[in-house]
Structure prediction request, 812 residues.
Amino acid sequence: MKKLIVQKYGGSSVANPEKIKNVAKRVVRYKKKGNDLVVVVSALGDTTDELIELASQISAEPPEREMDMLLSTGEQISVALLAMAIHELGYEAISLTGSQVGIITDTVHTRARIVKIEANKIHQELKKGKVVIVAGFQGMTPDKDITTLGRGGSDLTAVALAKTLEANECEIYTDVEGIFTTDPRIEPKARKIDEITYDEMLEMASLGAQVMQARSIEVAKKFDVPIQVRSSFSENCGTMIIKEVKNMEDVAVTGITLNKSESKITICNVPDKPGIAAKIFNQLAQGGINVDMIVQNVSHTRQTDISFTVPKVDSQKAIKLTQRAAQEIGELEVLEDLDIARVSIVGVGMKTHSGVAAGMFETLAKEKINIEMISTSEISISCIIKKKFAETAVKSLHEKFDLAKR
Amino acid sequence: MKKLIVQKYGGSSVANPEKIKNVAKRVVRYKKKGNDLVVVVSALGDTTDELIELASQISAEPPEREMDMLLSTGEQISVALLAMAIHELGYEAISLTGSQVGIITDTVHTRARIVKIEANKIHQELKKGKVVIVAGFQGMTPDKDITTLGRGGSDLTAVALAKTLEANECEIYTDVEGIFTTDPRIEPKARKIDEITYDEMLEMASLGAQVMQARSIEVAKKFDVPIQVRSSFSENCGTMIIKEVKNMEDVAVTGITLNKSESKITICNVPDKPGIAAKIFNQLAQGGINVDMIVQNVSHTRQTDISFTVPKVDSQKAIKLTQRAAQEIGELEVLEDLDIARVSIVGVGMKTHSGVAAGMFETLAKEKINIEMISTSEISISCIIKKKFAETAVKSLHEKFDLAKR
Prediction:
């Protein structure tokens, strides 16, 4: 049966002419089987960073409309080159910018949202037998200004196109084989996961797994677009991200994530009365700081400590804002700890399996790892520990929850 | 009085962030005087060459549509960066691609012709007080495919915009001060010409002066758009290219050009009968060879030599095609001479001044320079000489026709 397949290739998959030719070969293999192919491409390797560097030499705060004008050239170069490479193999291909496709977005430059996608042009070209190559990460406003979609934008282009075109498959090609139970660089026994739910993937993405941005998974979940994450450098199957996993309840824990790019801030001896937390976190929000985990214990002494984590890059600014708030509240002490890591276990199965949290804490205790903060969601449990224990924690939890076995 | 000024900056004027900032300063100076500014920009320095190199690593003959998709990114990068640089100086600017302006072309990719330009968008943005930055060298087909205009395309964009917008001035910024009586690297006494006619400029362009391509001058002439060619690195006035020059008849010769990139091919003892020349030059035309000067003497022996010049890059191919034709005509000998130069004098004044040709030949004779071929147009005379005499010829002719003096 003839299928319509949307494939997305990331920057590392098209980093140079040699890799572009390899992508072309893969595309042609699918085409030869009689499928219709729509291929979304990111900018070549470091192109985007180079363009940002160029802009920074001209302006510290370039207008965002012009930034989009600049950055969108990266993907335009990729699509043209990939179309050439496919032609070179004797197949017809046509490259299209986001504007040419008709990917209409709102007017929020550098992080625009897709409003709608016109499918006509793509269908026309598919009907002519052509492989359609679409520039990822970009669209245009109704006024024809070029916009970009922000981080993970090319994935989003692919997922939105798969939905609009009612594609049979949506494949996200990257430089890893799929989603792993944990980072294989830390735990060599880490296993590629065959199937994972949107919710688990969302949780893993927000907890530090870097394969896909949360945003495109949210869209995939909303419209129930099944995604396969797989490697452009191998023939192996990747990981299917889907709504419901078969035998989902058999496993309590699907994966383990590690995030070492946060720091912890603590305000000591906060008066335990209403409005204090609001005061602190309003300050931080107004400063544009994205606070992550927040822990406050109910106190029996009318005083309590409040701890929270922020991305390390925002740490300096966050400390200053927190100190200002602490000053206003009453000369409270503010502590900073850069030396932390967050280890999280994720799994929809933990909804129905009891004792998962206890198992996690026990395992860390056995390794003599002190837990500094705990935070839980419906399908995840996160612990903040000293950074030096991070790898040990991941390995022992991987062992504890039997993740190496299918 | 408020003026609408179209300025065009070439690749060397925007080769790096520093130069782009300088262009921005110049633009802002004009803007501050209350003028409306439309600025056409080429790709940064070597960008176009780098993109061509990238494509060549993928395909020896990339599809021209995709080549246009690729190359048009060069100017898109420039316009975004220039708009940023103008913002940085506190002025409003908006960059537009050829497609966004509405520069509609035919569908002949890589050398498209402009069919029409929609002026609405530009007028709208000018009315908002913005400097409008337009990507040169590019347009789009009625089907929204991106096209490029071929060599000298950015000049053409500027001239066509000046015509469409009924601009008061059209300035072409480059890395030289204007059009010179001859190449100042050869003759240091060469003088910048204040005014030159379209016809003279066309002749000089086709005879080897490299400042502007003949194509945009033809369009300027057709629509009577006065152009000023000037340097982006100085404040001096440049050269006005206009319809008629004041006191035009005072000077016989306006400039001297030198072209050392041709070679001469001679077919010996060609039978002096109808249809022979046609046979030879048909072969060459079918091979895509651009033959330049052709000289054939009427013969009194029923045999004659035919000589012509071709660009050196085409020489190999031209020789082969000529030999084939010579074989068919009757085993004629074909000679090649790579060691030639063409020296030309140009001036509308020579229509009304007698003795200009004689003066040229006399001057060369005095320097003991043998003339191998002569060819004349209404406003130019060209001589092919041995390459080693080229500089001497230019200098002595510059002296003879008093070009150093105004």
Remarks:
- The domain at 4-175 of chain B is CATH 3.40.1160.10 (Carbamate kinase).
- The first strand of chain B starts at residue 4 and ends at 9.
- Chain B has a mean pLDDT of 92.
